[in-house]
From TrEMBL:
Taxonomic placement: Eukaryota, Metazoa, Echinodermata, Eleutherozoa, Echinozoa
Name this protein carries in UniProt: Craniofacial development protein 2-like
UniProt-listed Gene3D superfamilies: Endonuclease/exonuclease/phosphatase (3.60.10.10)
SUPFAM superfamilies registered for this protein in UniProt: DNase I-like
Taxonomic superkingdom: Eukaryota
Organism: Stichopus japonicus
InterPro entries: Endo/exonu/phosph_ase_sf, Swc5/CFDP1/2
Length: 239
């Protein structure tokens, strides 16, 4: 099910899709230029902060950012296959990615240079990597590929960028019920402790005969275990 788009503006739009693997948030972004109102640049940061960490997130769009190739400086958000030189606006994007645990998916795949760039400067005729797909760092293994397709007719001077993603259910961690304490069998040879255990077992009250066999067995076994723990003590863990 697709929820109505939110945060709608000419530069920012969020679409939340409820899938069988959980909610997926798609954010379409067109980054303001450096001369724009600085408050506009913070809108993306604010929008990301409103999305639960447990939900998938993909940022799509023209960020006007040349993220470069320096994986050593930005190891958590840049892969080994970036291209070009870092520009000023990309510093802000990379800082945002580090703070929000995001990564630039295009830099994680070894494609041909022409498939890593998406826009050609009209004067210099040099190609740059401006259009990006950004994902959560802990979900990068679900992204199979991100690359540019120059043959697509998109009525724009930017090339089409496609990211292939396989959405997988998140692992659920179920807490295991606490097991019974282990009896310290090293004390079973102690006659005094054994006599105490016999005395405790002798005092066990029988279960109600009207109860089921399973209920009566649970009552008997748990009471005997408690008596043994009381008489012989708990076995300490060995480290």
């Amino acid at each position: 099910m697709i929820e109505p788009p939110t945060a709608g503006s000419e530069r920012l739009l969020k679409l939340r899709v409820n899938t069988t693997t959980g909610p997926v948030n798609l954010v379409s972004a067109y980054a303001p230029t450096l001369a724009s109102n600085p408050h506009a640049k913070d809108q993306l940061d604010k929008l990301i902060g409103q999305i639960s960490q447990n939900e998938d997130l993909f940022l799509l769009g023209d960020f006007n950012a040349r993220v470069g190739t320096n994986h050593q400086v930005w190891p958590t958000c840049l892969g080994h296959h970036g291209i070009g030189k870092l520009n000023e606006i990309s510093q802000r994007l990379l800082e945002l990615c580090c703070a929000k645990r995001l990564c630039i998916t295009k830099t994680y795949f070894k494609h041909k240079d022409k498939h890593r760039v998406s826009w050609m400067h009209p004067r210099s005729k040099k190609w740059h990597q401006l259009d990006l797909v950004v994902a959560r760092r802990n979900r990068i293994q679900d992204v199979n590929s991100t690359r540019s397709y120059h043959s697509a007719d998109c009525d724009t001077d930017h090339s089409l960028v496609i990211s292939k993603v396989i959405l997988k259910p998140k692992r659920l961690h179920h807490s295991k019920p606490k097991g019974l304490s282990k009896i310290n069998i090293a004390h079973t040879g102690d006659a005094e402790r054994t006599q105490e255990f016999i005395s405790l077992v002798s005092d066990i009250r029988p279960a109600d005969p009207e109860e089921s066999a399973e209920s009566r067995w649970h009552h008997l076994s748990s009471t005997i275990h408690k008596s043994a723990i009381q008489a012989y003590g708990i076995k300490k863990k060995e480290y």
